[in-house]
Amino acid sequence: MTEKTPRLRPALDGVPTYKPGKPAAGGSVAYKLSSNENPYPPLPGVLEKAVDAAGSINRYPDLACAALMAELSERFSVPVSHLATGTGSVGVAQQLVQATAGPGDEVLYAWRSFEAYPIIAQVSGATPVQVPLTEDEVHDLDAMLAAITDRTRLIFVCNPNNPTGTVVRRAELESFLDRVPGDVLVVLDEAYIEFVRDAEVPDGLDLYRDRPNVCVLRTFSKAYGLAGLRVGFAVAHEPVAAALRKTAVPFGVSHIAQEAAIASLRSEDALRVRVQALVEERARVVETLTAQGWTVPETQANFVWLRLGERTADFAEACERAGVVVRPFPGEGIRVTIGETEANDLFLKAAETFRKEF
Predict the structure, then answer these.
(1) How many angstroms separate the Cα of 78 from the Cα of each of 45, 205, 241?
(2) Mean of the pLDDT values across residues 133-153?
(3) Of 21 and 26, which is predicted with more confidence?
(4) DSSP string spanning 241-266?
(5) pTM for this one?
(6) Could you tell me the CA-to-CA distances from 131 to 108, 113, 134, 143, 154 in Å, in that order?
(7) In 3D, which of 118, 89, 104 has the Cα closest to residue 187?
(8) What percent of the chain is helix, strand and coil (3-state, nearest 5)?
(9) Residue 215 pLDDT more than 70?
(10) Is the pLDDT score of 1 beyond 70?
């Protein structure tokens, strides 16, 4: 008798597995610069709120995230009906694809960009369409416009882009949005918006307000330092936001996460201080790398990108030997998070040594 196994969707056969940043293994590896995490502990008052909330983990969290939604509505001056929450911005991104695209539909994005995009597109049965970045590692918006077909349902614009850190500026982004068909949803993925210091980079919330086909993604994982609690949100016009609430995993955002997010929003002054410190450290890292002879794309995120091609794996191994773990994209390049000063110094020393040897 032939042994049978459960039938799984053939569409999953070609789905790549998400690869998280490699953790620091201990021993000689002291620092993890592979996951774009915030090196600081939770903002003042956040841990206390989270600990208090942990006392009720025998109960389900508020399905509607009502208190968090009200806080977000006030903080960003948007109606509650235009908000939806999820398990980090990537969780909300998956909800967006589920709400807009299925078999025969297309999800369009730049490449290389956030590696979850092709995964969540294919899991929904949609076809991912990748448009190469320009030589400057920036979204090629004209090429993306040319790639739109009658099957395009959703377009991701990661701004700043992960993993390159590059940005799309206001004039070109507005021109792009004006030319995208109104029935195609454009998602401005702004996971790193707090680190932007280029005045020409728009706040996506300004663009969404009079554009019904624009949705903005935000997260508490990066600048706010809540990566371990998995809470993100979207701002979109009511039909899209309502669809997001329908596709959300019930009770996906824990009570601990909700309370920590609210406390984080109420600690904006401390947030600005910490983000500015990381921005200044980013400038130091870029300046040092440039002085060493590296070509570093202009970054507005909390990481830097080095395109190394076939030398990528060797560079990652050299960094690990020096005591830091970075994020390699085999055959393409290295993304390095801006971390503690000590961690950055170890990375910079490894980069200098590698450049001399290769």
Answers:
(1) 25, 9, 12
(2) 98
(3) 21
(4) HHHHHHHSPTT-S-HHHHHHHHHHHT
(5) 0.94
(6) 8, 10, 9, 7, 14
(7) 89
(8) 45, 15, 40
(9) yes
(10) no
For residue 185, the cross-strand partners are 154
> Strand pairing of 106-111 and 83-86?
unpaired
Q: What share of the chain has pLDDT > 70, as a percent? A: 95
Token readout for 301 is 């995120």
Whose tokens are 């620092």? That residue is 31
| Distance separating alpha carbons of residues 298 and 100, to the nearest angstrom | 33
Alpha carbons 102 and 78: distance in angstroms, whole number: 29
Q: What phi and psi values does residue 281 have, to the nearest 5 degrees?
A: -70, -35
**90 pLDDT above the threshold of 70:** yes
Q: What residue type is assigned to position 64 of the chain?
A: A
Residue that is written with structure tokens 């596709």 in the block: 247
What angle, rounded to 10 degrees, do the helices at 341-357 and 312-322 form? 130
Whether residue 139 contacts residue 168, with contact meaning beta carbons closer than 8 Å, is answered with yes
Query: What are phi and psi for residue 114, nearest 5 degrees?
Result: -60, 125
State the Cα–Cα distance between residues 331 and 4, nearest whole angstrom.
39
Pairing of strands 152-158, 106-111: parallel
Helix (H) or strand (E) holding 340: none
- Tell me how long the chain is: 358
Q: Residue 78 corresponds to which tokens in the numbers above?
A: 């948007």
State residue 311 phi and psi, 5-degree precision.
-90, 0
CA dihedral 104→107→113→118, nearest 10 degrees, is -30
